[in-house]
């Protein structure tokens, strides 16, 4: 009952009693096809513009000439699977599975397969941000630590250390998880867990 109410309000996808509900009822099938065709056309224009060109034979053979392979490990969990990172002019440009790694033996989970994105993604956060008047704004580390620290201490003073829950993330490395656990212990609470269990 509750689930069907949520689905209805969110316009979610559901197949029930032989009836299909579209993802977004406002976008009819015809509109969706028009949008798709327009997107494909624009992509085609971009692909054939002067921004791109065919790779020459040497580039096809080795697109990152002079690059070096650096053996490293995935930091997403304690398994420590092997990664072969390709570095070109100081930039991590590609990654391969380290086929002969003694732990992973040529295997990766999906997190490890995208480890390079944690470094090169344009969405990567490089400094603290704060929502000011509804807009995300860069702030200094000093400001972030002071403001968050003051708020935490106020909560602790009012309701005690167990008023807080520390939640780990699948994007947290083994070392960061260790630090989180230590921080919770020094804070005085056992309220710490990993998002995968919640
Ligand atoms: S590839 Fe997956 S299993 Fe291997 S270390 Fe990374 S997160 Fe852990």
From TrEMBL:
Required cofactor names: [4Fe-4S] cluster
GO molecular function: 4 iron, 4 sulfur cluster binding; electron transfer activity; molybdenum ion binding; oxidoreductase activity
InterPro entries noted in UniProt: Mopterin_OxRdtase, Mopterin_OxRdtase_4Fe-4S_dom, MopterinOxRdtase_cofactor_BS, TAT_signal
PANTHER family registered for this protein in UniProt: FORMATE DEHYDROGENASE-O MAJOR SUBUNIT (PTHR43598:SF1), TUNGSTEN-CONTAINING FORMYLMETHANOFURAN DEHYDROGENASE 2 SUBUNIT B (PTHR43598)
Name this protein carries in UniProt: Formate dehydrogenase major subunit
Localization annotation: Cell envelope
Matching Pfam families: Molybdop_Fe4S4, Molybdopterin
SMART domains (alphabetical): Molybdop_Fe4S4 (SM00926)
Family of the protein in this entry: Belongs to the prokaryotic molybdopterin-containing oxidoreductase family.
The entry's keywords: 4Fe-4S, Iron, Iron-sulfur, Metal-binding, Oxidoreductase
Biological process per Gene Ontology, one example term: anaerobic respiration
Major localization listed first in the record, in broad terms: other
GO CC term, one of those recorded: cell envelope
